[in-house]
Write a structure and sequence with these properties.
Blueprint: H1 3-23, H2 27-54, H3 59-82, H4 88-110, H5 119-144, H6 157-181, H7 183-189, H8 193-200
């Protein structure tokens, strides 16, 4: 197994550890969860850099890497919902959209018919990550310095609500754009091989 794939597996392993620490009642564990998430996120950047620089790209890696990313981000959103930091219905929309698109993309990779990752989808992923980092830092910081009333600024419920709503709408919209841009490729994935052959005659 190549090093990038090992790092991808590590990211998947770190995800449940992050969740358990974040949702625990212990403030110290919550602080550690921030470190675990940062490490997990760094493995995503590092394995991509190694794969591009040294050509360590495999079909298995192309299948597993985006799946590991969505497992990590979806787990973060679900944890935020369980902590009542964000609205559950928004998380449901984000998680369902990301899982469906990721499974589609991974299936296409296995069939050697990779779909195009749109610029809007890349922007969505970047904004999701920024929001997760922001909320995670704000939440842990607010708990760590309880009594300073940081909630009035960086963790205000109304601010979090509108930021999360923006992320939700953006995520849903990019999913629709993704399907539209790749519709021709998507259709070929589900056409039987015999039918494709007959149509090409």
């Amino acid at each position: 197994m190549t090093l990038p794939n090992q790092l991808t597996i590590l990211r998947i392993v770190l995800t449940p550890i992050f969740v358990v620490l974040l949702v625990s009642e212990n403030i110290s564990f919550k602080q550690i969860s921030l470190l675990v998430y940062v490490i997990a996120a760094l493995t995503d950047w590092y394995d991509g850099w190694i794969a591009r620089k040294f050509g360590y790209t495999t079909q298995w890696g192309r299948f597993l890497d985006p799946l590991a990313d969505k497992i990590l981000t979806s787990s973060a959103f679900i944890s935020f919902a369980s902590l009542h930091l964000v609205e559950t219905w928004m998380v449901v929309i984000i998680v369902i959209r990301d899982i469906l698109i990721t499974l589609l993309r991974s299936y296409a990779e296995l069939k050697n018919k990779p779909v195009i990752t749109t610029k809007s989808a890349k922007a969505k992923t970047f904004i999701q990550m920024i929001f997760i980092y922001y909320l995670l830092f704000a939440y842990v910081l607010n708990l760590s310095f309880e009594g300073i009333n940081l909630e009035l600024s960086i963790l205000h419920p109304t601010l979090i609500y509108w930021l999360m709503l923006f992320v939700t709408v953006l995520t849903l919209w990019t999913g629709v754009v993704y399907l539209c841009d790749n519709w021709k490729i998507i259709k070929t994935l589900y056409v039987p091989a015999g039918k494709r052959a007959s149509e090409s005659i």
